[in-house]
């Protein structure tokens, strides 16, 4: 849950699926599933669904949080709504017999809750960053979390990466810094939130990787928690901490007086964002089941390009040649990073 999602965005929650699981080649089933859907290869339809869902999630959240759109100033309330709806829809899928979830157990909740706090911090900081930073620059800066994760991998887990990987990571970092320096709409508060988001995204990925084996000791089948249960736990357990944030930032006093809540367009945007955030969970898993983790990651990196362009056009984000060049280099570095890391593996 590319959460499962900008909310559980693909770069954040959904993008972790490829890191946590590199699926082996499955045995050939007796009854082969259909290879075409709507006259197109299933893998292509799954990939398009994932790209459209993840891209739409970013654009819709930016639209909802952009001060120039609706002037909605309660991002934690919007996040709470999205989490509540996602948890409800996942539970409804279980009740309909479509999926099976790990039941809520005290010991499992206790082990998972630290992961959940990092999840809330990751998604929350992305919401605050989106309020003040353009979509294109948010997209470029999300690559910085790869750099932080790689450094922590070396320091904590004693991993090693090839010189090509480090070169692409350095290029990502350089493009992000130059992009911020040449950003005509630069906002200190926005970039501070974005830097915090990079840190929390890396912390979430690293801690989730380390805690999965501990979680397996408390699941009913003694296996690692499946992705649907992760989506359910993350969204359901996020609600109490988010409510605390709402009180901390004073949103509980101003929420009902927000003019945006009387705007039908805002309500539609908020609802669509929540539904697509839920849909990302399934589209990401569907696409990953149809292809390899490498292709999944590569498509995610390529998808940042149209998302960045859409953000610039849709929100009329001010730019200049230097800033556009840094964005392009950063996005290309993201693609080269996937290729270099795959070769290194």
From TrEMBL:
In the bilayer, the protein is annotated as: Multi-pass membrane protein
Q: Where in the cell is it found?
A: Membrane
Pfam families this protein is in?
TPT
What GO terms fall under cellular component here?
A: membrane
InterPro entries with a match to the protein in the record = EmrE-like, Sugar_P_trans_dom, TPT_transporter
Statement: the UniProt record of this protein carries the keyword Transmembrane? yes
List UniProt keywords, sorted A-Z: Membrane, Transmembrane, Transmembrane helix
Q: Does the keyword Transmembrane apply?
A: yes
Q: What is this protein called?
A: Sugar phosphate transporter domain-containing protein
- Give the species: Raphidocelis subcapitata
């Amino acid at each position: 849950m590319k959460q499962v999602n900008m909310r559980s965005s693909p770069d954040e929650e959904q993008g972790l699926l490829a890191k946590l699981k590199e699926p082996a080649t499955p045995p050939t089933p007796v009854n082969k599933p259909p290879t075409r859907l709507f006259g197109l290869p299933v893998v292509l339809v799954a990939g398009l669904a994932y790209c459209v869902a993840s891209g739409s999630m970013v654009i819709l959240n930016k639209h909802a949080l952009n001060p120039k759109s609706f002037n909605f100033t309660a991002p934690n309330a919007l996040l709470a709504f999205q989490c509540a709806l996602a948890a409800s829809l996942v539970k409804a899928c279980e009740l309909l017999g479509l999926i099976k979830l790990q039941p809520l157990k005290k010991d499992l909740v206790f082990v998972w809750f630290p992961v959940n706090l990092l999840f809330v911090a990751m998604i929350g900081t992305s919401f605050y960053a989106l309020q003040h930073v353009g979509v294109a620059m948010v997209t470029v800066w999300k690559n910085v979390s790869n750099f932080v994760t790689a450094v922590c991998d070396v320091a904590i887990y004693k991993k090693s990466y090839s010189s090509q990987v480090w070169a692409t990571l350095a290029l990502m970092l350089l493009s992000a810094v130059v992009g911020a320096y040449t950003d005509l709409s630069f906002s200190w508060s926005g970039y501070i939130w974005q830097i915090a988001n990079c840190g929390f995204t890396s912390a979430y990925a690293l801690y989730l990787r380390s805690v999965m084996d501990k979680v397996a000791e408390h699941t009913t089948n003694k296996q690692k928690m499946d992705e649907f249960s992760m989506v359910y736990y993350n969204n359901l357990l996020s609600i109490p901490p988010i409510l605390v944030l709402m009180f901390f930032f004073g949103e509980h006093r101003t929420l009902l007086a927000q003019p945006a809540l009387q705007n039908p367009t805002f309500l539609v945007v908020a609802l669509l964002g929540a539904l697509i955030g839920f849909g990302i969970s399934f589209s990401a898993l569907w696409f990953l089941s149809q292809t390899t983790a490498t292709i999944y990651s590569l498509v995610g990196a390529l998808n940042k390009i149209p998302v960045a362009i859409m953000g610039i056009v849709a929100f009329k984000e001010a730019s200049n040649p230097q800033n556009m060049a840094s964005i392009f280099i950063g996005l290309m570095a993201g693609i080269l990073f996937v290729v270099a890391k795959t070769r290194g593996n």
